[in-house]
Amino acid sequence: MSASPIAADGTLAPARQAQIDAAAQRSRKLLHRRALAGAFVSAVPIPGLDWAVDAALLSRLVPRISKEFGLSVEQIDALDPSRRAGVQKAVALVGSVLIGKLVTREMIIRLVQQAATRMAAKQVSKFVPIFGTATAAALGYAALRFLGEQHIRDCIRVAQATDIDMPVGSPAHADALLSRARKAARR
Predict the structure, then answer these.
(1) Which of 111, 137, 146, 175 satisfies CB 3.0 to 4.6 Å to 43 for a cystine?
(2) pTM of the full predicted structure?
(3) pLDDT tens column, 138-176
């Protein structure tokens, strides 16, 4: 079992907060890249294409973000029963329907319904030449960013309330290291 995330003075231990901040930063970078991809697709004036792409992006993005915080289904299932119960209690208190669960089509639909107004405006705006396309792309980016940021905030709250181990070599972290290495090689 890892050390308590709470310092003697009742605040979150600095090392623990640094781990959470690093996971949040990696998650936000990943979210930004995926939201940009969604925005590009939103600019294409084919009805429904953006909804399908947004759903596909979210179904892959949410588990990756959860994994950054040690909150994926596999990571939670690997915990001993008492720690797993503590994590599940924290998840319930936060009210997240996505942390530690397999992301299903129904969950993505529920999540997208939270941003339904933006999504509907995005569909309508596609049919206004030039300005509408740009608006659809901006709304697409904003909708994905909103949903992803909400999940990141939920993960942060659960990670702060529990003593789960944070992954050291996460997939997004490995992607960032690979990207830096490629940039360095080009110079």
Answers:
(1) 137
(2) 0.73
(3) 878 888 898 899 999 999 999 998 888 777 655 545 555
